Amino acid sequence: MTKETKTTSKSPDSGNFLIQGSILAAAGIIVRLIGLLYKVPMTRILGTEGIGYYNTAYEIYNIGLILSSYSLPLAISKLIAARRIRGRYQDARRVYLCGMAFGITVGTAMTAILLFGSSWITETIFKSPGSALPLAVMAPTVLVFSVMGIIRGYFQGFGNMIPTSVSQIIEQVIHAAVSIVASYLFIRWFADAASPASYGAAGGTLGTLTGALAALIFLSAMMLRHRKSQAELYRRPQSVSTESWKSVFWALLVTLTPIILSQFVYQLSGSVDNSMFGQIMSAKGLTEKERMSLLGIYGGEYRLLTNVPVAIASSLGTSMIPSIVASKTQRDFPAVQKKIRLTVKFNMLIAIPCAVGMGVLAGPIMRLIFGDNSALARNLLTLGAPAVIFFSLSTVTNAVLQGIDLMRKSVTHSAISLALHVILVYVLLQHFNMGIYGLVIGNVTFALAVCILNWLAIGKALKYRQEIKTTFLLPLVSSAVMGAFALAVYRLVTSITGYYQLGILVSVPLAMILYGILIILTKSVTEEELPDMPFGMRILRLCRKARLIR
Which of 141, 270, 112 is nearest to 202 (CA)? Predict the structure, then answer.
C-alpha cells in the first residue's frame, strides 16, 4: 500500500461531519464579517450611545430567543438524526411537524412578552429606557426565528448544512443593508425627538427582523423542494410502528428543555453584565449616556470582534451533534471519541492563533475596523482576547454533552459558572471600581469555568482525555512565535511607510503563512489527520510539494 493510499483510505464518515461543519463555519465567518462591516457605518451613524441602546435591546431579545426558540434547531436535528439512522422517516416527519407547532406557539408567546413588556424590562432591570423602542421593533423576530429554526434543524438532522448556511448569509446581507439605511433615516426623521439615538437603534433592529423574514422565505422554498423530492421516502413503510404524537412531543420536550436551560444560562452572562453594570454604575453617578457609551465599546466592538472566530466553534458543534448521535445510536464509541478529538483539535488550531493575533495587534485592529483609536478599546481587546479560546472550547464541549445525552450537565456547569461570574463581576465593579474592565475579566473567566467543568464531565462519561501536546501546547507555541513576528512586521512596515493600514495588510497574511508552516513542522497536525480536515488533501499535496511533509 502506498503512502498516498494509506492516508486517503478513510471511512466515508470519518471527516464528513467536519466538512459539513466547515460549510456552516464558512457561512458563520461570512455572517460575522458582514456583521463587522455593517457595524462600522452603524456605529458612526448612531454613535456609541446609540450602539449601547442597540446592544442592550439585542441582549434582552437574545434571552427571549433562547427561552423560546434558539435551541430548536439543535433539538430537532438531534431527534431527526436518531430516527433517520434507523430508517424511521415517518417518525422524523412527525418530529418536524410537532416541532413546528411547538415553535409557533412559544414564538408567539415570547414575541408578545417582549413587545408589550419592552418598557418595563428596559427601565426596571437595565436602567436603559432608550432601549425600549428598538426592543419592541425587534420582538416579532422571535416568532420568525422559531419557524426558521425548525426548518434548519430538519435539514441539519439529515446532515445537510447548506440550507442553514445559505439562509444565514441571506439573513445577514438583508439585515446589514436595512440596518444601515433605516438607522440613517430614523436618525434624520426623528432628529428633534428626545432621544434620536434610540430611534436610530430601532432602525438597526428593524434590519434584524427584515433579514430573518428573507431567510425564512428562502428556507420555506427549500423545504417545499425537498419534500417533493423525498415524497416516496416518506411513504415507505417502517419496520416498526409509527410513534404517537404524544410520544414525539414528549421526546421533543425532554430533549429541548435541558438545551434551552443550558443555552439560557450560558448566554445569560451578557445580559447579567449589562444589568449589573447599569445598576452599579448608575448608583456610582454615571449617566445613562455615559453607561451606554461604555457598553457600546464593550458590546459593539470588543465582544462583536471576539465572537467572529467563536462562530467556527458554534458551527462545528452544530454539525457534530447529529454525527455523534448517529455513532452513539450505533454504539460506535470509538467513532464518537474520534469525532470529539478532531473537532476540538481543528477548533483550537484556529481559535488559539486568532486570540494571539487579536491580542498583539489590538490597537490597529480596533482602529482599522471601528475607527476607534482609544486606549480603552485597545486595552479591552488585549485583556479579553483569551475569551476567544475559552468560548470556542466551551461551545464545542457543550455540543458534546448535548450529543451524548448529558444535557443536564451542561445546564449545571453553566449555572455554576454564572454564579461565580456574578460574584466576581460584582466585586470588580462595586469594590475595585474596575468599570468596563470588570466585564471583560468576567467574560473570560466565565467561559474558562465552563470549559473546566465540561471537560471533567466528558472525561468521566466517555473515559476520554483530549491529547494535550498537539491540540493545545504546540499550537500555542506556534501562535506565540506568529504573534511576535506579526507585531515586528507591523511596526517595521508602519515605521517605513507611515500607514498603519498597510502594516496590518502586510503583517497578518505573512503571520498566517508562518503559523501554517509552524503547525506542520511541529507536527501539530499529522499526515494521517490532514485528510479528515476540510481541504485536507489539498493541503497535504501542497505540503509535500513544499517538502514540509516527506
Answer: 141
Nearest C-alpha neighbor of 48 from the set 282, 305, 289: 289
| Phi, psi torsion values for 36, nearest 5 degrees | -65, -45
Q: How far apart are CA 69 and CA 260, in angstroms?
A: 8
- CA–CA dist 15, 536 (Å, integer): 10
Written as one string, the DSSP assignment of 383-446 is HHTTHHHHHHHHHHHHHHHHHTT-HHHHHHHHHHHHHHHHHHHHHHHHTS--THHHHHHHHHHH
Neighbours of 390 (CB within 10 A): 22
- By CB atoms closer than 10 A (0-12, 13-18, 19+), residue 125 is middle
Q: Bin 433: left if φ > 0, else alpha if -120 < ψ < 50, else beta.
A: left
**Over its length of 550 residues, how does the chain's per-residue pLDDT go in tens digits?**
344 334 333 444 444 555 655 666 666 667 777 776 777 788 788 887 888 888 888 888 888 888 887 778 888 888 888 788 777 778 888 888 999 999 999 999 999 999 998 889 888 887 788 888 999 999 999 999 999 999 998 888 887 778 888 898 899 899 999 999 999 998 888 888 777 888 888 988 999 999 999 999 999 999 888 777 666 666 666 666 778 888 888 888 888 887 777 777 767 777 788 788 888 988 888 887 888 788 888 887 888 888 878 776 666 666 666 667 667 767 777 777 887 888 888 888 889 999 999 999 999 999 988 888 889 999 999 999 999 999 988 888 887 887 777 778 888 888 899 899 999 999 999 999 898 999 999 989 998 999 999 989 988 888 878 888 888 999 999 999 999 999 999 999 999 999 999 999 999 999 999 998 998 888 888 777 766 666 666 777 777 777 776 6
CA-CA distance, 529 to 203, in Å (whole number)?
A: 47
Q: Is 352:392 a contact under the CB 8 Å cutoff?
A: no
Which letter does DSSP use for residue 128 in this model? -
Residue 270: other Cβ atoms inside 10 A: 20
Counting Cβ atoms within 10 Å, is residue 431 exposed (0-12), middle (13-18) or buried (19+)? exposed
The answer to whether residues 382 and 508 touch, using CB atoms and an 8 Å cutoff, is no
CA distance 39 to 36: 5
At 240 the three-state DSSP class reads: coil
Evaluate whether 78 touches 322 at the Cβ level (below 8 Å): yes
Q: All 3 cell numbers of residue 187?
A: 436618525
Cβ distance 27 to 101 under 8 Å? no
Nearest to 209 by CA among 127, 148, 293: 148
Task: Give the separation between CA 441 and CA 327, rounded to whole angstroms.
Answer: 38
Q: What is the pTM of this model?
A: 0.71
Core vs surface per residue 315-347: b (16+ CB within 10 A) or e: bbbbbbbbbbbbbbeeeeeebbbbbbbbbbbbb
Three-state SS letters, 252-282: HHHHHHHHHHHHHHHHHHHHHHHHHHHHHHH
Distance CA 525, CA 76 (A): 34
* Residue 426, CB-side half-sphere exposure with 13 Å CA sphere: 7
